[in-house]
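Usage example:
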Amino acid sequence: MKMTLTAIVAGALSILALIIFIMVFLPYAQQDTTPSNIWRDRTQVEAAGRKIYIANGCVYCHSQSIRAIDWGFGGERIAQAGDYVGDEPILLGSARTGVDLSQEGGEHPDDWHVAHFVNPRYTRPSSIMPPFKWLGIKEILTLTQYVQSLGFKQADIRMKRQRHWKRQAIEAYEAGPDVNARWLAEQVPEGWRNIPNPYPTTPAGLQRGHKIYQEFCLGCHGPIGDGMGPAQPWIYPPPLNFTILKGREISGGIIYYQLMNGITGTAMPYFKRELESQKIWEVGDYVAVYFINQSDANTDPRGIDAAWEPYLEFEPE
Amino acid sequence: MASTANEQAPSYPTAIAFCLTSTIWFAAATSFGMIAAGYLFAPDFLANIGWLHFGKARPIHVNLVLFGFVTPGLLAAGFYMIPKLLRTELFSEKLGVFTAVLWNVTMLCAIVGIGAGYSQGREYAELPWTVDLMIVVLFVLVIFNILMTIRQRKESILYVSVWYITAAVVLTGTTYGIGNVIWKPDTGALLGIPDAILLWFYGHNIFGLLLTPMGLAVAYYVLPIATRSPLYSHTLSLIGFWSLIVVYTHIGTHHLLQVPVPTYLKVIAIVDSVAMVIPVMVVLINLWFTVKGKWAEIHQDIGAKFVFAGTIYYFFVNIQGSMMSLPVVQRVTHFNNWVVGHAHIGVLGFAGVTALGGIYFLLPRITGKPIYSRFLADLQYWLVLIGITGFAIVLTIVGLIQGQAWINGETIYRVLPQIQPYYIARASLGITIMLGAYIGAYNIIRSIFFNPGATAK
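Running the assembly step on the lines above writes:
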């Protein structure tokens, strides 16, 4: 074959044209633009927030693309083509240095997001997201509106739920520690309230609980459990001060349940996706032993003794 | 044969201008890369400098590497090779130098555009509309200059390198405007899923239709000359060239295997990603058989040494790429640092190292003097090679940790603390590469402007 200039230019361009037709134009022409059942239009503020999201390259760490194999936030709903019918550009993302945000709307209340944008480590101590305090509070609020719309109608339902419980949580907080502690306990199903922490207090268990506390709890509840972590100024109702709970009948089961399910409406997220059972029990015991100063670990009723439990009783200092 | 006057005064100012462009933006691009790498293990690093946080440093880094460092580096070699191979002069050196100057202005605009928040938010197509237009103009100028040079040629046979360079600039000049949806200035994007399909068609072809053919053009030129060997096979050159254009253009959709796009696109993308073995191995067999047994000659010429190293990374990145397109592999490797490692092997390990090889090969031949310091060039060679190989290893490990943990149901926050040490290792290797870039910039600038000649060691 003789390679002439015409052969090269015309040959290459016609191959390209054919492939663009098959690989780009055909799917474009045949696309289904029917919105999915959760889709809705974005409001003006949400669209403005999306612009801030694009301008700051959030897409480099946050995908919006839930796959059949995914766990974690949004993992209940696999992405459909109809979810993206209003996206220009589409923001699927190519890396998950941070969490997928497809269904982020309503996972947390607005105040959590504000604290998180000011400095992500305030609410998530192990986050590696850069701080966005420099955006200014107005832009942060706009961006928050966009993030709270992710998930469309599903996000709206979750946001409604956040607002509903926030009113109750604020009411309970403002009525003082007695009412607040009782309210928190009463939200836990009856059976759970009577369960003591089934893991015995051990030095190793407290160490593990300490590590979990530092990676997940410190930002709001603070290093000494008084609710004065760096996120505190941004959050209302403020993070719970554990040191007021002594003598207020907070069982291991209540702590476990609240860690597992979170307290919707407040900045307290649920941890059941992040932490397995033993980790939740042990961080709960860490809080009970060091901050509440009252632990029911391994007390009755406790059923058949677990085979591995230590023989000698451990007395914390 | 060309006239003797032409042979006596070959000064190639366009090639020189593109050498300088490439080497300066290599230093700048790696510096932005270092800033981005710093954020990953110390996220409050440079906190609250609004135009420089990770979300901006990363696209600036990527765009500067693609369009500031590698493309001009390969074009420098192109503007030297094309006149040489066609026994003529460049159609217009003035136009060429103007293109290089405009190229630098465009890169500055790219930094300002992304830094100021005008990113269009599409990976590899972030640049704001005005910068997109400037890049299209640049490609039009380059295409015009090269096509006119080919028209006035005194050598009737077009060598392989000429095919690749011509195809690369013509095809990229076309896909750039389409991929950046240049007819929609406000968003630079399509609506919904077709936007993702177009984006990855285009994004993958920045590597497949620009960096790869340009890099192969340099390898096809440098290796036979440095080893004084005829090219092994014309037939393999032909197969390699046409199969590259046919196969590479199909495979962008392998970025979307886990996304609701039509299944036939995924099937084509996977099949052709595996079929990439053909264009890659055909070219490599051709090149490697050409230089077979000529290790001493390759070692002697620092340009050829870089280029040969580039062919080895080309082999690795493509075998890895074919493997990554398999859905079962991608379930682990998608969305994590494995892919970042893969991209670095391709863009720096193959295309970047080949561009450096082209620059080091042509500089002594243009200036008539040896490069300023062979020692510094060798030092840069090893710094870049150690850096990129380390990158590949570390990022692959991080990717496996992330991918396996996620598939087992561990969440992002659980994995982040585990990978922090690897991010530190990665940044350290980044310093190695950045040092290499700075040393190279010094050496190349000294070779052009303040070169004492043969007396220097």
